[in-house]
Amino acid sequence: MRLLFSRLGQCLISTTTPEAVARTVAKVADDLFGWDGFVFYPCFEDAGESYPGVFIDTVNGERVDVPPPNSNNQPSVADRRVLANGAELILKESLSDREPGSIPYGDRSRPSGSIMRVPVRVRRKVTAIFSAHSYTLQAYSRNDLNTFQTLADYCGAALDRIWADRTFRNPKHNSGWCGKAPRMACDWRMGKVSLSRSMRPIAGWSKRRKRNWKGKLFP
Asked: How do 54-59 and 37-42 pair as beta strands?
């Protein structure tokens, strides 16, 4: 297992898209405990763009990408349970049993017999949900769930890095002081600097200290 996680870390360093992270995790998860269906549901809200996620199912013996179960990309009741309560293990007694709150995807004529869902957590914030599905009853154990959660947490930093980069590059979200740094640099004149209102608290500027803030760069 250590070797798998070591290889995963090396792969995640070079990933630049959420989809690449999801497919890398899916491959490792398949090696660890196997699956017939795999889902990556993103919960990013700060990047100003939507991402449909990754939905994989086994159809006619082959793993294929399938469309999301709903067009508006809203979390299901099952997803909201994970967001609120954390990882969950669903082991049905019969394939005919329906899971409350779930939305079928892919081959809807073949319900999952075993399901694991885990949140991807970064600094106490959930950025995505992974789920593994098996058509076999009692396919997963509590140890498998713990391993899946460790796998999800392991890739959390990579997703956080990717989404932070997208947020920074999005002009709509570049209204903060970081986005104004280049503009401030263009205001250097005669060894002085002009501070915008958003930059003043960060630089320690105040009306009381205004006289000392002539903006001189050098003593």
From this structure: antiparallel
Distance (Å, whole) CA 99 – CA 111 = 9
Backbone dihedral region of 60: left (phi > 0), alpha (psi from -120 to 50 degrees) or beta? left
SS3 state of residue 91 = strand
Judged by DSSP in three states, 55 sits in strand
Give the chain's length: 219
Burial class (CB in 10 A: 0-12, 13-18, 19+), 119: buried
Please give the pLDDT value at position 90.
Answer: 96
pLDDT (0 to 100) of residue 147: 94
Minimal CA–CA distance to 13: which of 154, 167, 125, 119? 154
Q: How far apart are CA 11 and CA 3, in angstroms?
A: 12
pTM here is 0.71
* Whether CATH 3.30.450.40 fits 2-169: yes
Contact 149, 182 (CB under 8 A): no
116 CB-near residues (< 8 Å, 6+ apart): 87, 88, 89, 90, 131, 132, 140, 144, 145, 148
Mean pLDDT in order along the chain per 10 residues (219 residues): 67 80 92 95 60 89 91 81 94 89 88 95 86 97 96 85 70 47 40 49 51 44
